[in-house]
Design brief:
This protein has 409 residues and is α/β, with parallel strands linked by helices. The protein is 35% helix and 15% strand. It folds into 2 domains: 202 residues, Rossmann fold (3-Layer(aba) Sandwich), CATH 3.40.50; 192 residues, Rossmann fold (3-Layer(aba) Sandwich). Bound molecules: adenosine monophosphate (AMP). Adenosine monophosphate binds next to helix 3.
Length: 409
Amino acid sequence: MPFAKLGLSRPVLEGVRAAGYTEPTPIQVRAIPLILAGRDVIGSAQTGTGKTAAFALPILTRLEAPAPGPRALVLEPTRELAAQVETAFRDYARFTKLRVAVVYGGVGYGAQTAALREGVDVLVATPGRLLDHLQRGQVRLDRVQFLVLDEADRMLDMGFLPDVKRIIQKCPRQRQTALFSATIPPEIETLIQWALRDPETVEIGARRMPAETIRHALYPVNSSQKTDLLLELLRRLDYDSVIVFCRTKQGADHVAALLKRHNHPVAVLHSNRTQQEREHALRGFREGRFEVLVATDIASRGLDIADVSHVINYDVPQHPEDYVHRIGRTGRALATGDALTIMTAEDAQHVAAIERFIGQKIERTKLEGFPYLYTALFEELKPGGKPLHLRRSRGARVGRGYYYGPARR
Ligand code: AMP
């Protein structure tokens, strides 16, 4: 199915071509015609599936030309996501005359207020800052025709649901609404009942499965050797860019300091950093100045960082969904990537929960030649099993160990 057959307008199709997309992803094939037809949509798709374009392209098509607005409102849980989605909208809209703006917290009001005053067709926003602008009378939502609630489960996790509801109440009842969420907990179900009208659900793949282009491996280790193993993995990995996930901000700072001492060009991303520091980290990582990004889960959802070759979970995520979101940073769209998870005996339960959640057993791997101290986890490894080669883009090989679990692909 080519893009040209989906019913998108000519300038939007030109934008798609300029973005370098040759064919629509499955969620785009399903969602674009529905949104063009005026339907409310619930999208549950894996990260990196192209969901931004799935809602942005039909909305831009329907908006056609500039008019008093905003007529499309997109709510995002974090400023990074808001900035990223705004950039995507601008890219796709470059051959239209439609105006796109973004508002989020952590920065001054001046530029945002000026943009709102000039008039916008598409407004991308985080809930808190949008409410501030509403209270200051700098924007009204009574012309909104298209409302997108993106990463709804994340907004719930971050406590934004009351804000989101207040915002929805300021939008006209007569509108079209799309909600995207990796998971649909009961609170989101209630929100759907309240805010959407006869929605059509678009679900791509099993909701819980991580992208199939990702290769997973667990690296069991005694907890006293976690940092040594991380350093050794980075030494042996032939990575282009890697995100190292930590559970806490302090942990992330600690790991970043350690990597810096070992001469890795590293940036840190977590919520205690100022907006300026976060932007500096992201930009540097995107541009390749930092090869390693150490991050907490705030960076794990939806952030579009192209070409991450590896994700290393320095800490096993405590929520199984976060595992899927974290490793969603690699293997985006149709590329492949590797996800390595360092595991200690204390993590066994969380790992079991992750394996149940994703419906597959993850390979256990040992690094050959690493001076391992004993951990009971090794009892699970089967000597004589197949050695695991971590395939890399440049053909290098990393892990050579033994794996335990079902037959590998
Ligand atoms: P998203 O799931 O919206 O965060 O998109 C993930 C990545 O896929 C982004 O880098 C998009 O630019 C890219 N992408 C979206 N749609 C397509 C497509 N049809 N073909 C190739 N890449 C795409």
